[in-house]
Amino acid sequence: MHKPMKGWFRLGVVMSLIWIGTSTVAFGINDFQFTQRAAFLGVSHCTDAIKGAPVSTRKQMTAICFRQLDTDMRSVRQLALGKWLHEIAGYGVAPLLVALLIGFVLIRLFRWVRAGFEGEPTQS
Question: In angstroms, what is the C-alpha Rg of the chain?
């Protein structure tokens, strides 16, 4: 028979889902900024190299430079994805598991102590 979830358990499930959702969004934004900085650095290196080149070779240098930039950005995106997954596991899921473990231990401890007091007579 299926046992329905009680209030505190439901609250824990909802808070866990909110935590994982917001941490995923936060790390996605961080990943975007990381990739954007890498692209900006690549473009600035290209434009600096092209500015110093003779006018006759600028078009050819532009094509070569931006092809290399495209290749580099693929590598950066793969690096960022690995970084993103590592951050989600390390900062999103691990603290959640630790919090759930601590909560479970505290609840069991509270119930154990309360059960010890149930058998004692009350003083008036």
Answer: 28
